[in-house]
Known about the structure:
Rossmann fold, elongated, Alpha-Beta Plaits, alpha/beta, 2 domains, 6-stranded parallel beta sheet, 4-stranded antiparallel beta sheet
Amino acid sequence: MGAGHSLIQNNHEEDQSIEIKLDPDAELLVQFDNIRNLQTWKNKNKDRFDIEYPVFTPADEQYGLDEYIAINLTEDQLKEDYIREINDAQGIIHVEYNEQYSLVLPVEEAETSFQIKSELNDPGVSNQWMADRFKLDKFHEMISSRNSMLDSEPSIIAILDTGVDGNHEDLAGNYVSTKRSYDSDSQGHGTHCAGIAAAVTGNNIGIASWIPPGINVKVTGIKVLNAFGMGTQKSIVKGIIDAADLGASVISISLGGVTNDEREKAYTEVVKYATDKGSVVVVAAGNSNVDAIGTTPANIDGVIAVTAINKDLNRAYFGNTVDNLKMGLAAPGENIFSTYPRNKYISKSGTSMAAPFASGIIGLMKLWQAELTNEETYELLKETAIRNDDQLIIDPIAVFEKMMEEGS
């Protein structure tokens, strides 16, 4: 359909109405109990509804993700009678709206002048306050001293976003391409996140990341958002499946929106799919200064949700709270200097920036101990976290000191 449909959901806690937009080309995601019933319903209704199948094509079919169809509804078919008819049909076990999602960025752009001094030779470090606050040069020295890590199989961080400029001067050395169309980024958000997670360090250009020179942590892009920073639940679920099937150690997601459906079965199933395959899923908590329990996919069981802190280690003014989530952490997300398409560098603020900070650290953790589960990863980060104003702030040096102590 040409125009996007929307739902109005009443948020009783804030006493306001929130508009939730649906994918104009596929408003519903429908799950069946088996392929046979799916095919029967599809053949019976192919002249009544605009049906897309297959929607998801996971390598492992035991999770039921291959038993979804998407339906593009007309204006009349969006009425409750039609949706109830679909929901009550034989073999259908779940119907949910295919909501639109967008980048999680605060209103204001960030400043860049910090003039940080560091032993690292990357000139952009002078604008990276986290390098001073978290002793990035000391961290690199500590990691690089453990030569056993250099021979490990690569740990791959998948950035699910607007794509990544894989030819950027400060990313190319750590970037692996999985699909040519993912290696460009006209919006810039994905490239900024990729630099935070895994920019090349020690090359006398650009910025520094948590990945020391010669350490086998790589970053890749999977495009789930368009040039306007918009995507849908369907595109994000597809991206998570792709990342998990590629063997990503970490799946970093800096997007989200207010949830309309508390069940969100597709998200729940795909996160389980990814974590069962060994990926840790990291999600930005959102930038509305509210409880992230109402923000998706940050509120999905199995993900590590990350809110943002500023240079004083206080929660950023925009960051959603993560206290009521099962696995909530905090990381730098205000005034973050990083890579931008066409060999540029800019500062941005948002929990979008905090999530790849966590993802870079977790990528290293998975290189050190590949079998770490998402829960084990979270417990290590929680146990070693800096506690400030009820925030559990990731402490890279502390978590690796603990891992090295336990591994010695």
